[in-house]
Specification:
This protein is of the alpha+beta class. It has helices at about 15-30, 85-95, 125-155, 180-185, 205-225, and strands at about 35-40, 40-45, 50-55, 60, 65-80, 100-105, 110-120, 155-160.
């Protein structure tokens, strides 16, 4: 399968809610084809150093409703040397500020992933796809922003990757600026991961939705200018 191959054949509309959600999320993220690659029931892309992968489970039935589980994953830190008990305790502390996703320590692989999982079905397809895309933006932006500090805390290294065909991405995708531009400018420069919010929390649906709309404006502007960001 080539990096840009579609999961479903062109010209044949899918009735699979998982595949439909994947296509909707992919479009909402406005991912550059040059920095993404496809596989059956999933896709991955690289915004700068970290890879974000999204997959849809085969459709299954629950209480008479056909649903699919959407799972997104970003490996942030690898080669963790911190003892397992300490690493799990640290993950628990960081997850006090979870925004649609959570950090998970995988002891067998000695790595820390940012993982999110959400259910979609026909009636929630549009709404949930929009929410998932917003949370994916935030999860990846937070992971890139704090990757060095997380690596230091877990006594590991940042899980830097390259695109399988295009290689190393030198210029970060504009989407990653959402934290610095949207959150920090409106919150007075407060640290987002290592402090507690007061009042309107950063994890509220309103903040996530605002961040999503902001990112869409940024990416639409760049696409209107033409060209592919390097």
């Amino acid at each position: 399968m080539t990096p840009t191959q579609r999961a479903a054949p062109r010209g044949r509309p899918s009735t699979d809610v998982g595949e439909l959600a994947l296509e909707e999320i992919y479009k909402l993220l406005r991912i550059d084809e040059a920095w993404s690659w496809r596989r059956p029931r999933g896709f991955s892309w690289i915004a700068h150093r970290l890879i974000q992968s999204t997959d849809a489970s085969p459709v299954f039935e629950s209480r008479g409703i056909k649903i699919s589980r959407m799972v997104s994953r970003v490996t942030v830190v690898e080669d963790v040397r911190l003892p397992q008990t300490a690493a799990e305790k640290l993950v628990g502390a960081f997850n006090h500020l979870a925004v649609g996703s959570a950090y998970v320590y995988l002891s067998e692989d000695r790595r820390v992933d940012a993982i999110m999982a959400h259910i979609v079905h026909d009636e929630t397809l549009k709404m949930r796809s929009k929410q998932i895309a917003a949370y994916q933006m935030l999860a990846l932006a937070f992971a890139e922003l704090h990757s060095e500090r997380l690596a230091d805390a877990f006594q590991g290294k940042v899980a830097t990757r390259q695109h399988p065909a295009a290689g190393k991405r030198l210029q970060a995708d504009d989407m990653l600026n959402v934290v610095a531009t949207f959150y920090l400018s409106s919150r007075g420069g407060s640290a987002l991961l290592f402090c507690r919010w007061r009042g309107d929390r950063a994890s509220s649906p309103t903040c996530a939705q605002d961040a999503f709309l902001y990112c869409r404006r940024i990416r639409r502007r760049d696409y209107d200018r033409g060209g592919v960001r390097q």
